[in-house]
Write a structure and sequence with these properties.
There is one protein chain. By secondary structure, this protein is mainly α. The protein contains 17 helices and no strands. Helix 7 (126-172) runs antiparallel to helix 11 and helix 13 (267-283) packs antiparallel against helix 14 (290-318). The longest helix is centred in the middle third of the chain and has 47 residues, at 126-172.
Amino acid sequence: MMFDERLLKLRLYLSSFIIGATLSSSTYFIPIFLMEMGASYTFIGLTGSLRGIPYSILPFFVGFLTTRYDLRTLYMLSPISLSIGLASLYFSRNYLDVIVGNILVGISMVFYWPVAESIIAEFVSEESKWKIFSGFSTSWSTAYFIGPIFGGFISQLIGVEGLFLLCTLLSITGLPIIYSMGKLQIRKINVKDKQRIDIVKSSKSIWSMYVSVFLFTFGMSCIIALAPSYFYEIGWSNVEIGLIFTLFGLARTIAYMLTNKLNIFNPALMMIFSTIFMSLSIIFLARIDFTLIIISLLIAGFVNGIFFISSFILINIKIDAGYRSTSIGLMEGVLGLGFIISPGLIGFLIDILGAGNGFLITSLIVILALPFLLLLKLR
């Protein structure tokens, strides 16, 4: 079956923007919603961890499914589960309701990035791949820098519950766009058994990348799952919190816009650079100075984009076509595992040791990725 690559990419860009805008407008305000209910940092972190459970368990399974089922159908599950999760948050009356809604939001992420990246890896020509990956990444990351400030204004006007309801409706609008992509079934690879590619064997060449992704998620979850509550506690308004996360998203978008230029550099070297600066930016989060925190989040956003661009480049270099979706699923699963463990642990550290020491220990955990990345660079 022949695909119109131009139409496919436009629908991918638009759908990724809608889903990204829904996620970024709502998820940054779940910690604030919990704090208003009287939750501790430990509980807020654990709730963030629960959202990470689907992302740690399901991506590899989804990667397996992408080789056997229509990717369009799998991609549609993202806005469906997201809208149900946000509706659950809107109607929530206790912690359990919030947890259920949060897990459903986590499930939506499983069918978002891994499936969309698999569509690019498997259905886009090699000469267009980096341009379209850059466009896709720019689309969702643009949504991620618009979403927080939008969510901040809306929640200030009609409350966080009203924001969840509005985002539920926004998510649903992505469904007809994804459906119009047409059937996206990966062609089965027919090769002799002795020539068959062993995906497990191939993935061994980048095992240290998976370890570094896991450690890097401690920095990400510190920013996404805990920092909003910390900023709220020290007296910042929803609009101010939305603004600084808009800048975080803007910096990440700039990084994704550079994808076409970055793929000429050594991806392991770029991941080393990203890890060092992510670690440094985490240290300064506990400083109450508004300007310093903005600078820290700008740096964190930019290197976050660089880090994951580099991981995608590595998979495309090391893993053969037809098996990349499984490797992407494995990487996203490792990312999800990090999001299970890190928010609760960091929240506990902040409760026991204070924000400054909690953020410092998190930065040291992130820097532990360096030896694994150095090993990757030497291979």
